[in-house]
Write a structure and sequence with these properties.
The chain is mainly beta and 143 residues long. Helix content is 6%, strand content 37%.
Length: 143
């Protein structure tokens, strides 16, 4: 699997100054703020960010099948972050749980139908360099 190339957008979009209600309707004025760049919104560090398309439902409801994830290689992977990892030479997207006291790392799915993945490590096996590819900073779902 190769990352999708990132092309710089020339477009800008207007972002409303108010938040829309996901529950009951909220009467709103027609007020728009300054235009925003989706490039800047989605990628704080473009030189270390990559796009990948997700296949599968193991991260539902957080990340949908077919979503495009933004992965930043410059961010330190810490417990609770969603990461792109290579396990058994395959890319997986999972939530990270570090257990240094047990010399292991857990990779957790958001979907409870999937089992956790356990990776043991020792002083010679640096999980941070050998398993974690990058940290997922956002997911774009198209429906």
């Amino acid at each position: 699997m190769q990352p999708i190339p990132i092309l710089k957008s020339n477009g800008s979009f207007s972002l409303s100054e108010f938040k829309v209600s996901a529950g009951f309707p909220n009467p709103a004025e027609d007020c728009l703020s300054q235009p925003i760049s989706l490039d800047n919104l989605l990628m704080a560090r473009p030189s270390s960010s990559f796009l990948f398309k997700v296949a599968g439902d193991s991260m539902l409801p957080d990340i949908q099948d077919g979503a495009i994830i933004v992965v930043d290689k410059s961010i330190k992977a810490t417990t609770g972050r969603i990461v792109l990892a290579t396990i058994d030479n395959e890319f997986v997207v999972k939530r990270l749980k570090l257990e240094p006291e047990n010399n292991r790392v857990l990779f957790l799915s958001s979907n409870s139908e999937y089992k956790r993945i356990v990776v043991d490590f020792d002083g010679e096996n640096n999980w941070d360099e050998n398993v974690i590819w990058g940290v997922v900073t956002s997911a774009i779902s198209i429906f």
